[in-house]
Design brief:
- Helix content is about 40%, strand content about 25%.
- By secondary structure, it is α/β, with parallel strands linked by helices.
- The chain has two domains: about 1-145 and about 205-305, Rossmann fold, CATH 3.40.50; about 320-395, Immunoglobulin-like.
- β12 and β13 (about 365-370) form a beta hairpin.
- α11 (about 220-235) packs parallel to α12.
Length: about 400
């Protein structure tokens, strides 16, 4: 069993690449399911057919299925009791019922429900590979790690409180808050258990890979740097980065000269930012990629004779460790044009990132490194080069 997540900012091509990957896998003989949680229903556009909220077989293709997750339906059918209780809490505080239901649709609900569907389909054993086209938000990673934050402790706490439900009903008129029913508590316990199983799937590096997609522009690459760091912190294996919509070398029209120069600069920057992660380049197609024929062409161009189900890379590109006095961030450095790194010339904060200037045989090179949130409240102490890695030290003065 393999689970492959694709993530990147909106417009980077996640849905198309997810569909092309799934198509390639099915052509190699894998029973494949692609799950979309994008409310724009782009997966239906990609396959040029209506994808339902239940697994839909792709016309004319063996072993390929797709599903468009309907989070509202999923919540109503599987977690409706919990949602109704949350609504009752808001209404008890005087909120209008319409607004109460709106707030009860918690932030990031779409991708959260999609992750729960992964557990369902992994445990069904009906598929060899599941490909998830995530919504355009790196915040989905926080939901992936939610089982660790809530998991077993929350489930034990809910079970501990369960026997007190009948007593709580007596004081409900006094405290002014509705008491959760036994049905609510039962669904809470079940949800916590599913979250625990989800976490086990996500952090299993032989099963699950996260793949990054970006366009060769500043904003898209910066977005992926942050996502890459979060994945490292959450112990999720990132095995591949894809730079999409690269203008082909053969395009010689002077109109595109500026774009091509800019893209080459950002592609070089991406090589340095994501080292040692493998990076694939995918050209900008002449037309919108729709339909099985173009999806197959894209999949062949992206993977060639490779098996998309393989684990392309295993390991952490950026390591974050606690030291005696604070935090240590270790960043592996790319073999920059076979030059030798000499010294760290300058280290300073730049917004949420760290700007680092390193002296090399070919001159000074600047790189921007994303920082974990905890580092923002610490004092930057020093940085040094050790065995081809940049070690950055922060002091906790709290």
């Amino acid at each position: 069993m393999r689970v492959i997540f694709y993530t990147g900012k909106g417009g980077s091509g996640k849905s198309v690449i997810s569909c092309a990957t799934a198509l390639k896998l099915s052509e190699l003989g894998y029973e494949t399911l692609v799950i979309s949680s994008d409310p724009a229903h782009t997966i239906s556009d990609a396959f040029e057919m209506q994808i339902q909220h239940t697994p839909t077989e792709i016309s004319g293709r063996d072993k390929l299925w797709a599903i468009q997750v309907d989070p509202i339906r999923e919540v109503r059918e599987k977690y409706g009791v919990i949602q109704e209780y949350i609504v009752s809490l808001f209404k008890s505080k005087g909120l209008d019922e319409v607004l109460a239901y709106e707030i009860a649709a918690l932030p990031n609900m779409t991708e959260f429900i999609s992750l729960l569907k992964v557990v369902e389909f992994v445990e069904s054993n009906n598929y060899d590979v599941i490909v998830l086209d995530t919504v355009p938000s790196g915040e989905a990673l926080k939901n992936i790690y939610l089982p660790t934050l809530l998991g077993s402790t929350a489930a034990k706490l809910i079970k501990l409180v369960a026997p007190l439900v009948n007593i709580a009903k007596v004081v409900e008129p006094i405290v002014g808050l509705p008491t959760p029913s036994k049905e609510v508590i039962s669904e809470d316990i079940e949800l916590m258990e599913i979250l625990g199983r989800l976490k086990n799937i996500i952090v299993d590096r032989e099963v699950t890979s996260l793949r990054l997609i970006a366009n060769p522009d500043a904003f898209s690459i910066q977005n992926l740097r942050r996502t890459h760091l979060l994945a490292n912190l959450y112990d999720i294996n990132v095995d591949l980065a894809i730079m999409n919509k690269v203008i082909p070398e053969k395009v010689s029209d002077s109109y595109f000269k500026g774009w091509k120069n800019a893209q080459e600069k950002y592609l070089t920057e991406a090589e340095a930012a994501f080292h040692p992660l493998p990076i694939k380049r995918l050209r900008l197609f002449q037309s919108e990629v729709k339909g099985v024929r173009l999806l197959s062409e894209l999949g062949d161009e992206l993977f060639g004779d490779e098996d998309p189900a393989e684990v392309y890379f295993e390991g952490k590109a950026i390591k974050v460790m606690w030291s005696n006095h604070g935090l240590e961030v270790v960043v592996p450095l790319p073999p920059l044009f076979a030059s030798k790194y000499k010294d760290v010339c300058e280290v300073e904060r730049a917004g949420e990132d760290l700007s680092v200037v390193i002296s090399t045989d070919i001159g000074e090179v600047r790189n921007f490194i994303p920082l974990p949130t905890i580092a923002h409240i610490m004092k930057l102490d020093s940085a040094k080069l050790l065995n081809g890695e940049l070690h950055i030290y922060f002091i906790d003065e709290r």
